[in-house]
Amino acid sequence: MSTDRTLPTTVAAPGLPARIRIHEVGARDGLQNEKAVVPTGVKAEFIRRLAVAGLSTIEATSFVHPKWVPQLADAEQLFPLLGDIGDVGDVALPVLVPNERGLDRALALGARRIAVFGSATETFAARNLNRTVDESLAMFEPVVARAKADKVHVRGYLSMCFGDPWEGAVPVGQVVRVARALMDLGCDELSLGDTIGVATPGHVRALLSALNEAGVPTDTIGVHFHDTYGQALSNTLAALQHGVTTVDASAGGLGGCPYAKSATGNLATEDLVWMLDGLGIETGVDLDALTATSVWLAEQLGRPSPSRTVRALSAP
Questions:
Q1: Which GO molecular function entries does the Swiss-Prot or TrEMBL record give (predicted)?
Q2: Contact call for residues 212 and 242 (beta carbons, < 8 A)
Q3: Which of 72, 133, 257, 301 is catalytic?
Q4: Mean pLDDT to the nearest integer, 49-61
Q5: Is 228 helix (H, G, I), strand (E, B) or coil?
Q6: What is the model's pLDDT at position 264?
Q7: Are the CB atoms for 210 and 173 separated by under 8 Å?
């Protein structure tokens, strides 16, 4: 592995946040798309290594029915293995819950941060949740209410915010309506998902501005970009210029979406950290340790990491 870490040269740009929080999704959003089921012990070690590398928010798993996402069927076995993560530092381990049954399972194991997963489009809501958009919001309402009553932090994911493989372009106003509804349920934060990776910077700015106009503060918004068309970093920079300070990313660029076949990998955490290091934006992440973690996981998966930064830093 390369040890030349004099690069990238740090050159700050005006108008950007001094620090951002990376919401690491590799262990959940990344591994759920693997064809083979990754052993529970490997998942636990992956999460521990991510924590040691400095990631403070690591989405651990999903309490969905095993029939729908068999790769994450071991949530009950995995989550108890993560009790020692707190020894690393102040690390949050959010989990995805689709409904009240999922919430029950998560709370029984001591989860204190959950996420619900909605859609801005009707077709994806039907395929992913077997419900209309409004029916899915109704399903989330008691989940969020119960979680908040128990002082559990709630994130609302909103997918298909920039384009849908079945419906095409998604109007900004349509996204704002569902986003506002999610926040009105009581979500603490909102993650805007570019599920098939079709967003461009101007579109990102327009949606963020429209959300602000609808009363959704920038400090409650995170962004979740996929790199299908190579736009994830440019879209992230546009969001940072707007004031967003939470960015979702996946170690090694793992992931996709099992219900949207045109969705390719997430923004690689290493690629994001390389850009942020160059801009002088603090993340708390040790890029060398993170790269080593993704190299290790790639060996477990039997294929190289798709992250360009991982490949560059791990070259002989």
A1: lyase activity
A2: no
A3: 257
A4: 97
A5: coil
A6: 59
A7: yes
* 158-183 as b/e: b if 16+ CB within 10 A: bbbbbbbbeeeebebebbbebbebbb
Q: Is residue 257 scored above 50 in pLDDT?
A: no
Check residue 69 and give its pLDDT: 87
Alpha-carbon distance 244 to 295, whole Å? Answer: 29
- DSSP-based three-state secondary structure for 118: strand
Residue 222 predicted with pLDDT over 70: yes
Strand partners, 248: 23
- Outline where 53-132 has alpha helix (H): 75-78, 100-108, 122-129
Q: Respond yes or no: is residue 257 known to be catalytic.
A: yes
How wide is the angle at C-alpha 166 spanned by C-alphas 204 and 258, nearest 5°?
Answer: 85
Count the neighbouring beta carbons within 10 Å of the beta carbon of residue 246: 22
**Per-residue model confidence as pLDDT tens digits over 90-132:** 899 999 999 999 999 999 999 999 999 999 999 999 998 899 9
- Report the distance separating Cα 111 and Cα 61, nearest Å: 11
